[in-house]
Amino acid sequence: MVKYSTFKKNLKLGIERGDDNNLAFLTHYLQNHKNGVSQHYKEPAIKYYSELNEQSNFVSEPAIQQLLPLDFDVPFPSPSKVDFTFIDLFAGIGGFRIPMQQLNGKCVFTSEFNYYAQISYELNFGEVPFGDITKMDLNIVPEHDVLVAGFPCQPFSISGKMRGFEDTRGTLIYSVFQIIEKRNPKVILLENVKHLVHHDNGNTLKVIIQHLEELGYIISWKVLNASDFGIPQNRERIIIIGSKKTKFDFAKIETQPKPTLKSFLEKDVEFEYLNEEYTLLNNYKIQESGLIFVGYRNKKIRGAGVRPGTEHLSRVHKQPNRIYSSEGIHPALPSQESSGRFWIYDEGKVRKLTINECYRLMGFPDDFIKIYNTSELYKQIGNSVCIPMIQEVAKQIKKQLL
Asked: pTM of the predicted model, to two decimals?
């Protein structure tokens, strides 16, 4: 049996910008050769493989079927036992895929626009995501049991018109609706920022729910926090679940006590310590969220509208200036900061989180392969989802709805 890494090396496979989905077709075909899904990818995959084969000395015969099955020697191969199928839209670096595969879910289609995220995804799963979903022939998307999507919530005005599908044209979620309408999955699982609940006075969420109901789904939603699932991060996200069968019961989701950030930190590695003036507070308290704001960098803070004597309360400091204790939890990791994360106070010193610590705060296993670009790594993890939270949600989806 040929290893996937050997296959890549001999054919000199590598993701390039503007690849026109060639590698997506090829890797999706290789991943799905045992099921009928492969027919969606077969013709362009074999054509591309034949072109590559002419430029290599790997085999003299371009019949790709002779090489199957490949041994996908990647950290997170598809499960050998398959209980359900799913597609991974706006896939990022695979925060949905890892827990879904752990529950014996087989991914049959992935899509992710970002070039660096595509590289990370391929390194860990042996599959290159398709690119821009808005420019794709959606007929290549196969039938599936569960659709998962951490769709971007770019601003779009609904203005209370409540026209369902029509109101979402020109937005990325419109493509999600098109796939749902075409393939009619049993279950849909959508994730987004907590602010979606309030966007445009709640009308955005109402229109999304309205259209899903028009497509025949029974909808339920709830804002969940990563800190309730064994992760020391105050990360609130809305989870929307639709089913053709019955209403999903969020009350059955099992939560865990909040752990401390300290229990997730690395030991005996090189840290980036704060080498500028900062102030530690004499009196601080654990916030209801579990955050412990203990100090701040001595940067200019907001003064307008601040009452005398309250200048150093956490609300007047922008997040990059705040210092949090490792005895509490960490604020939500953002995607906007490409040079690092917030400052923590640990072992009597102030330092930044390491890359590995950031990935742990999303529940990613330590054997997850990380690309070389540090700034992209920070963006990728800030854009991802909390794996333990998604796993618990998916566990209940499988139990209640499949």
From this structure: 0.90
